[in-house]
Amino acid sequence: MNSKYLDINSNIKKALAEKRPVVALESTIISHGMPFPQNVETALKVEEIVRATGAIPATIAIINGKFKVGLAKDEIEYLGRSGKKIIKASRRDIPYLISKKEDGATTVASTMIAAQMAGIKIFATGGIGGVHRGAEQSFDISADLQELAHTNVAVVCAGVKSVLDLGLTLEYLETYGVPVLGYKTKELPAFYTQKSGFEVDYQFNTVKQIAKFLKVKWEMNLKGGVVIANPIPTEFQLDYNSINEIIHSAILESEDNGIKGKETTPFLLDKVKELTYGKSLEANVQLVFNNAKLAAQIAAHLI
Fold first, then answer.
1. Which domain range does residue 172 map to?
2. What secondary structure, in 3-state letters, does the chain show?
3. Domain count for the chain
């Protein structure tokens, strides 16, 4: 990629040159996922966990019309304070923001793009986007899935965001040849819970096995990403039946309010937080911490 569009932090550049493990981190979770100052505290803690596990964190955003790989603390704080004033940037938004020299918070899709451009193979997030409920009428499908089909980055997550249609999302991933791996689980985790009623493609019980799988896939030039589903720790998961009832209620409200497109997931997550009296936000924080640690472990074995 033309270097005038990509700004890699000197520490990240050095780590990549020395073949040390690096983990990509998104920025939408900072600007759109949590309130200030919890968003900044969480982002900095995630970076701390990655470092403590032996890898280098690379939080990614679009800053002043460039992909910035490895944000400084003041840049993370800027995104956190600005919140939803920052544009949520997926693939289609990248050329607009860069040509206009504006700022953007990267989603799963755009973080994967920047990570691949920088040469980073492992990315930790909360949950991936997917096929929305009712997509047979709306055709509302997250750009994350197409990015997973084409971009060589493995995404460590707590499964698919449970406000989505998990079954259709798995079917979509299968169609495009994206493997869904379960870390120490055969059941696909559903973000807030370890339970979903759906199975992953393959269960792996060690980090070393996952790293070997990734090496084989990409050495064979089998293009595309991998979903590594890492269940939320037991002590932080929410009750399966209760959260499903709450999600159903939130979806009905979103439909009544005419919420569509990329505004749907943020609305639903905010509504779920309200209806769980903040418990879903705490679960979200803890699963991100858990994913960051696993991503760092995998990155270390992938070198």
1. 3-302
2. CCHHHEEECHHHHHHHHCCCCEEEECCHHHHCCCCCCHHHHHHHHHHHHHHHCCCEEEEEEEECCEEEECCCHHHHHHHHHHHHHCEEECHHHHHHHHHCCCCEEECHHHHHHHHHHHCCCEEECCCECCECCCHHHHCCECHHHHHHHHCCCEEEECEECCCCCHHHHHHHHHHCCCCEEEECCCECCECCECCCCCECCEEECCHHHHHHHHHHHHHCCCCCCEEEECCCCHHHCCCHHHHHHHHHHHHHHHHHCCCCHHHHHHHHHHHHHHHCCCHHHHHHHHHHHHHHHHHHHHHHHHC
3. 1
